Each structure stands twice: as structure tokens, then as C-alpha cells.
Amino acid sequence: MNMAKYRNIIFYVATILFFSGLMYWFFIEGKTLEAGESILIKQSKGTIWENFTESFLVNLHHPLALLLAQIITIIFVARLFGWICMKLKQPSVIGEMIAGIVLGPSLVGLYFPEFSAFLFPKESLGNLQFLSQIGLILFMYIVGMELDLSVLRKRAHDAVVISHASIIFPFALGIGLSYFIYKEFAPDGVQFSSFALFIAIAMSITAFPVLARIVQERNLQKTKLGTIVITCAAADDITAWCILAAVIAIVKAGSFASSIYVILMAIAYVLLMIKIVRPFLKRIGELQAGKGIISKSIVAIFFLTLIISSYATEVIGIHALFGAFMAGAIMPENVKFRNLFIEKVEDVALVLLLPLFFVFTGLRTQIGLLNDGYLWLITGLIILTAVTGKFIGSALTAKFLKISWKDSLTIGALMNTRGLMELIVLNIGYDLGVLSPQIFAMMVIMALVTTFMTGPSLDLINYFFKGKKDLAEDNEDKNGGKYKVLLSFDNPESGSVLLKLADNFTNKMNSNKSITAMTIAPVDELHSYDIDGYEKDLFENLIDTSHELKLEVTTLFKASTDIENDLISITNKGRYDLLLMMLGKSIYEGSLLGKLLGFTTKIINPGKLLNTVKGKSYIFNTSPFDDFTLSILDKTNIPVGIMVDKNFESADKIFIPIFELNDFYLVEYAKRLINNNDSQVIILDAAGQIRKNTEIRELIRNIEHIAPNHITLYNEKMIEKDFLKSQDLMLISNKSWRNLIDSKSLWLSDIPSTLIISNPSFF
After folding, report:
1. Which CATH architecture has domain 73-464?
2. CA–CA distances in Å: residue 364 to residues 185, 300, 659
3. Which of 125, 126, 277, 398 is the S-S candidate for 408 at Cβ 3.0 to 4.6 Å?
4. Which CATH code of 2.40.110.10, 3.40.50.300, 3.40.50.720, 3.40.50.620 fits the domain covering 471-584+625-644?
5. What are the strands, taking DSSP E only, across 47-96?
């Protein structure tokens, strides 16, 4: 063994020495080749430090270094403002739009001009625009894929009427508004028709992605209203983009007559995509169905389709984004296939490239140009026109179709959402020279205001039309006096395990129990076309387990932008007796850094990284619980059971270590398991305090009296490995669990499945 080790070392050293010597010989001999050549030797001026700083500054201003610095700044600021907006119950896209304006001349450029000139010099904006356009192409591809055309075909009648009304109303009002502002605000040399058409289409846009996520967040996706709104938005999206393509063609050609050939080519292109390309892609999708992965060759085919489609529409004259949207819309309708492909594209497009577009838009938005009351009055008029056309147009049409006033107004509020799609239209108009910097800034403000007002409008509508109570409150009324257990899980396997555990606690309670299984999914991971399938997959194992156990379970699915606070709210409002959830293991998840960057890092023992403060969440969580779990423990007013699963099936044999008298509330849970599951319970008097406490001994005797031979008191200091492995479940207090982790107890490697139960009165 030693000889082999030395042989390797000798070989390593000999190899290094030989080739080093060979390279040295080449350099020496190479010097002789310089004879007769004019060799220029760069002479350094100044000190070594001065030379270094000069080189460093050159590197700092290199186009690549500058672009990377821009990307770092943009992503960080965009995520920060997006997170703030999510906390304010607003779509994250509003925060990203604001981030763009903040980094532009309206704020940073105004108050920190030197920094702005350094980070965003004019000569670098071309690279930024190029990357942002790539991000937009990928984004529009995703938007196209998120459209469920089958739903559109099935439920199109009312939705198309509402959708087209929500386009024609603001379109007409936009043209009317253009009549009054054309003279003053249109760029020189721009025809009225071009200016009016772009103002009109900007008024008519609905942001399908933002609307879909708001619908999910408010749990409207399964309602008739949610279906109508999603279908309306999808029809609006398709129609608006077709109109936009025609508008671009007319603007570029100069007149409708001149654009005839462009429009005919666009129609031919659409027919080609639907009749030839779509069946081809569908066949590829069928061949890949059931494989669970997409090969690189298939990815290449679809990306080529995207790029060729975008190129074709750009060359035709109706913009590359329409081609990207079309390429996404004709993707195979197989949900899993689309989902797999979206996962490949979405993170790069939405996290990395799309924020560049927001900032590029922000760099163009000069709110400082709106420097007097009259200009802000015009801005207000633009906002009023946009809201009147979209909100009122959609609501009145819905009411005409005999939809209730509440639902009609809700449809109007949702269809008035513009968001990112509006910015895309405005930037196209700006690039074509149709919109002046002033009117561009006004329209950007309009996009922000109309998107921002969606949430408050919906809340106001619900306030005036006192809607149904949420599920938690319904359960409270329906299940008064029952022992109520809430399960919170985020994957199918966890749901099944927690249900088995809940059954052990309540098995013999018959009608005196209520079990609710809940999962709260992040909005930005859901897509409107597959949300039903997503929910079905999450609850499938749990429902199968409930059938096996003959256990009635209420399921609750909710999409959320703030999972932590929504879980706390539902738990406290529902007045449950016990919340069961799985142990999280992430150091970043739930922390400020994690929320900004979306990091999830799995570690074994986070408690040793930094010192901790009990019960609080900081940038680096150092507790044995992740930040999310800590927050739940802090803010819920009921006991919380945190499960560490080691192939749990049933709690037949239970082990309860009592390290201090405050841990003794665990015996109440042991009693419940004995009564409902006939569990065998062993209590370890680890601190020797039970023997000295008459009240506790009496409680154990009472349990023995009711269920003889089901509870045993151990006074042994040493616990054998075989004993721990023979148990099905360990009950432990959260404080004792923390102590076990901190002391690196030998128990941890041998413990069975463990339920860490908090006691709110002591936590």
C-alpha cells in the first residue's frame, strides 16, 4: 500500500520536472528565433500600483465586464422590488417594472448621474437591448405555451364576446384620445393613423400571464368565473397580437394599402404554422410522450422552430415577438411535455433576461419630462381612458351576458391588468418612432397604475359584495367541537405520510374529528394550462391513502405569492387543534436572501454555521429548523407537529424522552395515540424528574388504569441502538430537539421517525 503511494508521488514529481524542463528548453531556444525581428517591448510607466490600477480600470470598463455588472445589478434590484410587491400582495411584475424606472434617468440617473453614467453608458445600451429582446422572445414563447387552446375551443362563446368587447371599447376610445393629443404629443413626421393605432392597441392589451397568476392566487381557477376570465384573456391575447401584427405592418408600410402584401404574407405564415408545422410538432410530442425527459435533439428542433418562426415574422414585417408567440401556441398540447419544455426555458427567460427588458424600458422612461401639472393631467386622462375602455367595457359586456354584477366587475378588474405586455407594445412603438419620449413615459405610468389597481379593485368588489367565507372559516362553522387536524405538505409522498400520522391520532373518534389536507403552491411555478393536473398529482397519493384508511379528508389547494403568511393565516383562522407538517432543511428558504435570489441549499446541520437567536428569522438561519418552520412556530397559536420521516407507517411503538418538566405536555399526545391507535408508549425519564413529581406520576397511573400495559416509564440513562430502531415513532419537544442537534447526540443516527411537537404556551 505504501509502495503504491510512493510510486504515484514519484511519477507525479518526475512528470512535472520533465515537462517543466522541456518547456524551459523551448523558451530558451525560442529566444534565438527573435534575431533580426523588430520586437516591440512595452515599457511600463509609473509604479507597480499605478500600473495595476490602470489595468483594473480598463478591465472595469470592458464591454463584457460592464454587461455582467449591469446584469448583476438589474437582477438584484428587480428581485428586491418584486419581493417587496409580493409582500404588498401585488404581482411581482409591478416591482420589476418599478425597478426598471428606479435604475433609469427618473431616479438613479437624476440623483446619482455619475453612477448611472458609469453603469449604463449610452454605448452599452445596444448590448442590453439585444439581450432583452432575446429574453422577450423566450417569454412570448412561454406565453404561447401557457395558452390552453382546447379550453378556448370548448368555452369560447361568452368569453370571445367579452374578450372582443374588451378590445373594441378601449381601441375606439384610444383612437378618440389620439385625436385630442396628436398635435401636441405625436413625434414630428408621424401620421395620425400610425400614432392613433399604437395608442389604441396599447389601451387594448391584457397581460395574460399576470392575470392567470392573480386568478391562481385568489383560488378562482376552478370556478366558472375563473374559467371565463382565463378564456377571455387567452382570446384577448391572440386577438390583440394579431391586431398588433397588422398595426406594425401598416405603420411600417405607411398606409393600409401598402401593407396588404405584408398582411397576406402574415396570413400565409399563420396557415403554414397551423396546418404544417403544428402537426409535425404534435407527432414529435407523441413520440416523446411518457419518457419524462426531452432529448437534446428534440430541444434543438423546438428551439429551431422558435428561432425560424421569430425570424420569419421579423422579415415579413410583423415583429419577431409574434413569431415567438405563435411558435409557443402551436406546441403539442400534452401538458407534461409543455411543462418539461417550459422548465428548460422559463428560469433563464424570466430570472436572467426579462429583468433586462424592464430596466431597458426604465432607461427610456423619463418621468422628469412630465414637469408640469398639465402633463400629469394628460397622464390622468390616459389612465382614465384605459380603465374606462377595458374595465367598463368588459364589465358591461359580461353583465349583458347575464353574469352577476359581482362577477362582471371582477372580470372587468382582471381584464384591466396590463403589466409586461403593455411595456412590450410601448417599446415596439418607441422603436418604430411612433411614440415620443413624453407619451412613452405617460403610457408606462398607465401600465403601472392599471396593473397595480387590480388587487385593490378585487378586494373592494369583494367587500361590497360580501362573498363566501373562505374554506378555513367554513370548516370552523361546520366542525365546531371536533378535534381538527390540518396537514400542510408540498409533495405527494409527504401528504400520504402525514395522513397516516393524523389517522393514528384520530382513528377511533369517528364523527368527532376533522382532517384537512392542504398544499400551498408558489404562483410563479404554476401555469394556467396545467394547474388542475398539478393539483391532482399532489393529492393523488393522499386520496389513495385516505381510501385505504377509510378516512374522510377535506382537501385544500391554494396558489400564493406568500406561502408562509397564507399558511399562518389559514391555521389561525381555522382554529385547528394540531398542524402537521414535514421538517424543512433549507438554510436560505424563507430568509431575505432566499426570497430575493430563490436559493435552496440543503445542509445537514445548519445550527453550527452562525450563532442563533431563538424563534427569529434572519438572513442565515442557524436553527435546526429552517426559517419557514421557525416562522410557523412563532406565529401560529396552536401546537405544531413537525415530522421527520423515516419510512413511517404506523405509530404502534412510541418512545417519548422527557428531558425537563416542561416536556410533559407530550404525554397528552401519547394518551391520544393510546386511545385511538392502541399504541405502546415508553416514556424515558431522562432528567429523573418524573419520579419526584406526584402530579405527573398520577397522570401516568390514570392512563395505565384506562389502558393497562400500554404505557411504561423508563429510568435508564443509556438507550441502546437496537431499542431506538425497534420503535415506530419518537415524540419530542421542539426545545429538546434543538438540544439534541446542538449536542450532536449519538441518538440522531438511530432514531425512528420523529414528531417534534411545539407547545405554544411555552414557545
Report:
1. Up-down Bundle (1.20)
2. 16, 35, 64
3. 398
4. 3.40.50.620
5. none
Q: How far is CA 74 from the centre of its chain?
A: 18
Contact 203, 170 (CB under 8 A): yes
Cell of 89: 400582495
- Taking the C-alpha atoms of residue 215 and residue 222, their distance in angstroms, rounded to an integer, is 10
Convert the pLDDT of each residue in 37-95 to its tens digit.
Answer: 777 666 666 677 877 788 888 888 888 899 999 999 999 999 899 889 888 878 888 88
**What 8-state DSSP symbol labels residue 581?**
E
Phi, psi values for residue 200, rounded to 5°: -65, -45
Question: For residues 755 and 487, what is the distance between their CA atoms, to the nearest angstrom?
Answer: 13
Residue 444's φ and ψ, nearest 5 degrees, are -65, -45
CATH class of the structural domain 653-757: alpha beta
| 93: helix, strand or coil | helix
Q: Which triple of cell numbers denotes residue 289?
A: 410522450
Question: CATH 1.20.1530.20 occupies which residues in the chain?
Answer: 73-464
User: If DSSP states are collapsed to H, E and C, what string results for 493-529?
Assistant: HHHHHHHHHHHHHHHHHHHHEEEEEEEEEEHHHCCCC
- Say what the pLDDT of residue 449 is: 92
Indicate if the pLDDT at residue 607 is higher than 60.
no
C-alpha cell at 352: 436572467
Q: If pLDDT is split at 50, 70 and 90, which confidence band does 481 have?
A: low
